[in-house]
Design brief:
- With about 325 residues, the protein is α/β, with parallel strands linked by helices.
- Helices cover about 50% and strands about 10% of the residues.
- It has 14 helices and nine strands.
- The longest helix is centred in the C-terminal third of the chain and has 27 residues.
- The protein is globular and about 75 Å long.
- The protein starts with a strand and ends with a helix.
- The relative contact order is 0.07.
């Protein structure tokens, strides 16, 4: 299980309250066999953060946000977390006149640099994962996409400690392809954690049951994660419908896991399907004749490539049977293959 600090310890708890809750929570984890792979800080619910936390215009708010996060890091480590997620739910603006965007990013950078030094100084075995979202609850959030987060990470003092936590709903809110964002993070070596749910494109943050809205997108995401051998948590950051009772919430949790496992089986079926694989072989056909001169630049390779003759008409006339491939994928998902 994963948690924000105040999911476990109320924000106004006394030190004695905290110690009692920690003891009880540790006992519950031991009795149930649950583990805590990831933790995070709530820097968005309390009114103190109404104008931001790390990027707030108020220096006392920024200092409080750092203090709160250090305490929450201590808590996460105490329960065994190895990943610490940062979602800047209030790091943004409604009124652009209120902040200079460059100054805001500088403040965010200083906060993350401060906290990585805190982790190193304490000898914690902990990595950070930054989570992007385009808007809500602020009108516009800073670093709104996974790609923006990846660019920001490259500017940090200890970028090797910091990756991303992409969330399906957040990329779909911006109308983007979530699997592409995950692939970019993976290729960069920065896919430290992932939040799975579902989401209608362009809507408010719905956090629907995984695979309940856009099944084909969910399939290609599962297929990608399984193909590349992603070994991190499959974290379902989602919510049951508000119509549900306690048993319905359990149905929701089982449904998220069941759908993932079904799609995992479908991905294996995709790989075993001879017709699908024949189409992919046709689409990706390569005689290897140009690989040696296009893979890596050298003056000789550039000269050789410039001497090549290409039949532009033939290239344009070649068949690319994506309609057939896509329908076979739909047939597979509908259970008729």
């Amino acid at each position: 299980m994963n948690f924000h600090d105040n999911d476990v310890i109320p924000i106004d708890a006394t030190p004695n309250d905290r110690d009692k809750i920690v003891r009880e929570f540790k006992t519950a984890l031991k009795e149930t066999g649950l583990t805590v792979p990831m933790a995070t800080t709530n820097l968005f619910s309390d009114p103190a953060f109404k104008d931001g936390a790390f990027t707030s215009n108020n220096p006392r708010v920024r200092a409080y946000a750092l203090q709160k996060t250090m305490n929450a890091i201590d808590l996460g480590v105490e329960f065994g977390a190895s990943i610490y997620v940062f979602w800047g739910g209030r790091e943004g603006t409604e009124v652009d006149a209120s902040q200079n965007g460059a100054d805001s990013l500088k403040r965010f950078r200083e906060a993350i640099n401060f906290l990585t030094e805190y982790v190193l100084d304490n000898g914690y075995d902990l990595k950070f994962a930054l989570e992007a979202k385009p808007n809500e609850p602020r009108g516009d959030l800073f670093l709104p996409t996974t790609g923006a987060m990846l660019a920001f990470i490259a500017t940090l003092d200890h970028s090797e400690m910091i990756g991303v936590n992409p969330e399906l709903a957040h990329e779909h809110m911006a109308g983007l392809n979530f699997t592409h964002a995950v692939a970019q993070a993976w290729e960069a070596g920065k896919l430290f954690h992932i939040d799975l749910n579902d989401q209608a494109f362009g809507r408010y943050d719905q956090d629907l049951r995984f695979g309940s809205y856009n099944l084909k997108s969910a399939f290609f995401l599962v297929k990608f994660l399984e193909e590349v051998g992603y070994e991190g948590s499959r974290h379902f950051d989602a919510h049951a419908y508000r119509t549900e009772d306690y048993e319905g919430v359990k149905d929701f949790a089982r449904g998220c896991m069941r759908t993932y496992l079904i799609l995992k089986e479908k991905a294996e079926q995709f790989h075993q399907d001879k017709e699908i694989q024949a189409l992919l072989a046709e689409i990706h056909a390569d005689d290897g004749k140009l690989t040696s001169i296009t893979g890596k630049y050298s003056p000789q390779n550039a000269a050789s490539l410039k001497r090549q003759s290409f039949d532009r008409a033939a290239l344009g006339a070649r068949s690319v049977p994506y309609e057939r491939l896509d329908q076979l994928t739909v047939d597979l998902l509908l259970g008729v293959r």
